[in-house]
Amino acid sequence: MAKVNITIDRIRKEDVSHVLGIIRGLPEWFILNAVAEIKEAAKRLPGFVARVGDVVRGFIILEERECCVEIAWLAVEKGFQGRGLGTLLLRAAESYACSKGKPVLTVKTYGGMDYEPYLETLAFYKKKGFKLYEVVEEYKPFNGQPAAILIKTLDCRKPFE
Ligand SMILES: CC(C)(COP(=O)(O)OP(=O)(O)OC[C@H]1O[C@@H](n2cnc3c(N)ncnc32)[C@H](O)[C@@H]1OP(=O)(O)O)[C@@H](O)C(=O)NCCC(=O)NCCS
Questions:
Q1: 127: which of 71, 84, 100, 119 lies 20 to 30 Å off by Cα?
Q2: Could you give the number of structural domains in the chain?
């Protein structure tokens, strides 16, 4: 697929409505509850947006933990997937984690191995160097559904382009 001209910026208040629009366009991945949670998270937590031209087409929201930095939310608008936005957002997250002296990224994602959209999500994370730590079969914050916990150890000595 054609590469596009992408810029990555810190997420700002005025980006939140675009972020929520992206989530509403991905019903295979995000239930409606997620909209309210992401609205709150986008205001409270650090994160980045990927713009194509002037328009926000993807975002990542991060949560700093004692051990590491967790990817709380990540999404790219459907028509812009597969063009490198997710990779650049991950790179921004890696750079952020290193800047905090925490060379480990984690993410919890749906861990049922029977649902194609999230198998694609898992494939994306694995391609980007994440390893499966554990599948929690009945994970309460996911309403008792399975969660896959993935981890990536970062080499913070490498420069981030
Ligand atoms: C997962 C997601 C963020 C990836 O972003 P993206 O912009 O599409 O990813 P990229 O274009 O940077 O692709 C990165 C790599 O992953 C691979 N990849 C992307 N989508 C993939 C898929 N569906 N299946 C397998 N591999 C995939 C690409 O081939 C690419 O490989 P390369 O680096 O060798 O070229 C995006 O597809 C998305 O928003 N998915 C729906 C929501 C979601 O899953 N969010 C995460 C919830 S935890």
A1: 100
A2: 1
Q: What is the CATH number of the domain that holds 82?
A: 3.40.630.30
Q: How far is the CA of 87 from the centre of ligand 1 (A)?
A: 8
Ligand 1 site, CB within 6 A: 26, 29, 74-76, 81-87, 107, 109, 120-121, 123-124, 127
pTM flag (> 0.70):
yes
Nearest-atom number in ligand 1 for the CA of 118 is 44
158 domain residue, yes or no? no
What long-range pairs does 15-18 form, CB within 8 A, spacing at least 24? Answer: 15/42, 15/49, 15/56, 15/59, 16/42, 16/43, 18/49, 18/55, 18/56, 18/59
Q: What is the pLDDT of residues 69-92, one digit of tens each?
A: 999 999 999 999 999 999 999 999
